[in-house]
């Protein structure tokens, strides 16, 4: 019985939250890795693209709610998401037109593109604040729990409870669908293959008649769709706060680098690796140890949660020192 | 006499201020194999790039099938029937052999499966590895994939920039045999080669370039027999 309690506690406090968080990071890292592979620079504005896009989704959500639209148990934000993606894509394509295209035509060094993206990041950062403010916003409606602690205890008779929030289940389902669609697109469709060809060998892609500007636009749109989806899921799961999306940039980059920059599969794996490490290191294991018959003196928490970003940093440094190309052999420009 | 299929005449131009090509002329007839040889820095690859439009010409013209294409970009020339195999970076390494061929056919809107089968027929070694990433193949097989990719647009003129660079002599012979086979189907071949002797043996016409101009032009056999050419360029 105690063993089962320990198992449930691990599921409830580590596996489920880390899986949801990992899925959100994976979606973010997929966008970073696609832009890195095809546009050949690390896009620092990605976190703020998430924030800006999520802000748009929230505005559309409010609009839909004002119209009296409801999705029953599901959050209305799900309906607002496609509209948010379209609006945010238009904005991002605008930044490409105004900022990045200039450097691309000049064949600038990647570091110049990176610095340009830092500028775009600050602009988007400010725009997001103007658009929706700096306060914490909760925009999840519909049902809160798929499984609540009381129900779980009543069903199983265990002392330890387990909760599965709808936003967590939604995150996992939507992420799985996005990954499935993305990998299918990249591996089966003509445009997806052209994107991979362009990432592999730009000059030869050009010789084969692939239009680079079209590939670039497609990449921005896909990366933005993934970013806004990730941002919305993160906001539904935890609440929206513009600054949080700036902070989440670090674990996202850690995830993309752990997996190997430019490798979509690596980005997904990296997202889960970073999330599980972060949660496992900052969770106090005392309760679980007690169930298993130990009598620990402390909380058995390796790192206080305020320092969770240190985990991403450590993973980043270790990977860059010992396997700079990442788990799935990415590339470096 | 009918005009040759490719006729690049009196080409003059270079990358910066100094010209690399100083009035170089290259012609290839239908189904012919033309080989450009010459010492290092003679402008062999540059001449080929000029034919393909990767270099702006100050003077001279390029005609393909009687049509003046001097002002066209390389991409437009692919549409006109030119295929180009660069010396390096000529495949998509993380894509499968089959996907490489599909990308070669990117501009085609018709059914290209038959062309893929023809390429596999020509290169049985890579046909066995169609699901494998091209970057994992041996040097010779990668070259075969590169040539196959260029053949996917069904070009009338195939240009090869040192196709045998870095492959073993056995693989080189094999590759030359395949190139002869390609030429027999009516495709014209223009090729730059370091391995001058072997290349001239299969050449219908050979160009010896020196400092961006034609020094000798003759059939491959005649150039091989010319004591002057042998002594100066083929090492005796």
* Mean of residue pLDDT values of chain A: 93
Instruction: State the major sheet of chain A.
Output: 2 strands, antiparallel
- What's the overall average pLDDT of chain B, rounded? 92
Total of helices of chain B = 10
CATH architecture annotation of chain A: Orthogonal Bundle
Largest interface, Cβ cutoff 8 Å: A-B, 15 and 20 residues
Work out the strand percent of chain B: 15-25%
Structural class of chain A: mainly alpha
SS element count, helices of chain A: 14
Sheet of most strands of chain B: 6 strands, mixed
Low-pLDDT regions of chain A = none
Kindly, what is the distance between the CA atoms of the first and last residues of chain B, rounded to a whole number of angstroms? 36 Å
CATH class category name of chain A: Mainly Alpha
**H and E order of chain B:** EEEHEEHEHHHHEHEHEEHH
Order of adjacent strands in the largest pleated sheet of chain A: 1-2
Distance between the termini of chain A: 54 Å
Strand-pairing-aware structural class of chain B: alpha/beta
CATH topology of chain A: ABC transporter involved in vitamin B12 uptake, BtuC
- How many structural domains of chain A? 1
Which residues of chain B sit in consecutive blocks of at least 5 with pLDDT less than 50?
A: none
Helix content of chain A: over 70%
Explain what the structure shows:
The complex is a heterodimer of chains A (333) and B (236). Chain A is 73% helix and 2% strand. With 333 residues, chain A is mainly α. Chain A has one domain: ABC transporter involved in vitamin B12 uptake, BtuC, CATH 1.10.3470. Chain A has a two-stranded antiparallel sheet with strand order 1-2. In chain B, strands 6-7-8-3-9-10 form a 6-stranded mixed beta sheet, sandwiched between helices. In chain B, strands 2-1-4-5 form a 4-stranded antiparallel beta sheet, with helices on one face. Helix content of chain B is 36%, strand content 23%.
């Amino acid at each position: 019985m105690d063993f089962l309690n320990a198992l449930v506690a691990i599921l409830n406090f580590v596996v489920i939250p880390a899986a949801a968080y990992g899925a959100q990071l994976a979606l973010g890292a997929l966008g970073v890795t696609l832009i890195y592979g095809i546009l050949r620079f690390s896009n620092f504005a990605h976190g703020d693209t998430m924030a800006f896009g999520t802000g748009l989704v929230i505005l559309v959500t409010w609009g839909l709610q004002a119209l009296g639209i409801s999705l029953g148990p599901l959050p209305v934000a799900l309906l607002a998401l496609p509209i948010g993606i379209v609006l945010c894509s238009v904005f991002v394509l605008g930044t490409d037109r105004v900022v990045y295209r200039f450097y691309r035509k000049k064949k600038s060094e990647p570091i110049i593109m990176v610095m340009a993206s830092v500028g775009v990041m600050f602009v988007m950062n400010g725009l997001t604040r103007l658009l929706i403010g700096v306060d914490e916003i909760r925009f999840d409606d519909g049902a809160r729990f798929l499984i609540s602690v009381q129900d779980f205890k009543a069903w199983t008779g265990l002392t330890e409870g387990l909760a599965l929030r709808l936003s967590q289940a939604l995150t996992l389902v939507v992420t799985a669908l996005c990954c499935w669609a993305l990998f299918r697109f990249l591996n089966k469709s003509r445009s997806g293959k052209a994107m991979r060809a362009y990432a592999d060998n730009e000059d030869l892609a050009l010789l084969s008649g692939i239009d680079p500007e079209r590939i670039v636009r497609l990449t921005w749109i896909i990366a933005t769709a993934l970013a806004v989806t990730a941002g919305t899921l993160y906001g539904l799961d935890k609440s929206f706060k513009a600054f949080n999306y700036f902070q989440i940039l670090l674990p996202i980059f850690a995830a993309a680098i752990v997996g190997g920059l430019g490798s979509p599969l690596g980005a997904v794996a990296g997202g889960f690796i970073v999330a599980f490490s972060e949660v496992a290191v900052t969770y106090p294991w005392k309760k679980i140890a007690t169930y298993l018959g130990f009598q620990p003196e402390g909380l058995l928490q390796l790192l206080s949660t305020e320092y969770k970003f240190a985990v991403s940093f450590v993973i980043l440094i270790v990977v860059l020192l010992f396997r700079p190309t990442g788990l799935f052999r990415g590339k470096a420009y | 006499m009918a005009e040759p299929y490719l006729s690049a005449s009196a080409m003059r131009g270079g990358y910066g201020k100094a010209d690399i090509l100083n009035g170089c002329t290259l012609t290839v007839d239908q189904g012919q194999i033309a080989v450009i040889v010459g010492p290092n820095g003679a402008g062999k690859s540059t001449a080929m790039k000029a034919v393909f439009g990767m270099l702006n010409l100050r003077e001279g013209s390029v005609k393909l099938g009687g049509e003046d294409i001097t002002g066209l970009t390389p991409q437009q020339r692919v549409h006109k029937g030119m295929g180009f195999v660069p010396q390096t970076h000529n495949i998509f390494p993380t894509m499968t052999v089959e996907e490489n061929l599909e990308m070669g056919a990117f501009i085609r809107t018709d059914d290209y499966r038959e062309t893929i089968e023809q390429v596999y027929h020509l290169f049985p070694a890579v046909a066995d590895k169609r699901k494998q990433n091209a970057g994992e193949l041996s040097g010779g097989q990668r070259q075969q994939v590169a040539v196959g990719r260029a053949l996917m647009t069904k070009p009338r003129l195939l240009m090869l920039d040192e196709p045998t660079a870095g492959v073993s002599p056995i693989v080189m012979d094999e590759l030359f045999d395949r190139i002869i086979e390609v030429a027999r189907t009516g495709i014209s071949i223009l090729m730059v080669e370091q391995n001058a002797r072997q290349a001239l043996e299969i050449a219908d016409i050979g160009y010896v370039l020196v400092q961006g101009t034609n020094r000798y032009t003759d059939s491959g056999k005649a150039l091989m027999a010319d004591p002057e050419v042998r002594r100066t360029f083929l090492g005796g």
